[in-house]
Every structure is written in structure tokens, then in C-alpha cells.
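User: Hey, quick favor. My workstation is busy. Could you predict this chain's structure for me?
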Amino acid sequence: SRKILSIKKAEEVYAALASSPFVSLYGRNSCHEDFAEFITIKYLNEKFGQKFSIVLSKNERTLMEFNPLKSKLVRKRMNELDQFCSIN
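Assistant: No problem, here it is.
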């Protein structure tokens, strides 16, 4: 069964994600998942203008918002990704 994180624990988890070079928690599972998540989010953003952000909220109040494609650590990895495929 799945455990539901408390909002405090979720904030800690996503704060850790925000200080990492990964675009999602799922992408942290393996290099394959990381590549799939990264290219999908980058493609949807660049090709279709689809914004991606992770928002934690409680009682309709935003507690935290993280846009991975604006992260310096994630952006440093974009050159690596561009070596594999070009999104035009």
C-alpha cells in the first residue's frame, strides 16, 4: 500500500528535488527514467510551450512551486540532452 506524505514531509522531499539536477522524483529512479522524464518535459515545453511545474498546496494556498526547467542544475544538463536529440 502507498503511504501519503504529510505536507511537511512533501515540502522536504520537493525541496531536495529542487536542489538536484532532476526534473522529477520519478526521474531519480534510474538513468532511463531520468532520460525519459527530462526529454518529455523539455520537448513539451520547447515544442508546444507547455509549462511544467510542481506545486504543493494546502487549503488552496500555494506552499511551494518548483519549475525544473528554470533550475540552474537542470539547465546545465540541457547541453547533454541536446547531444542526443535536437528539438526543432
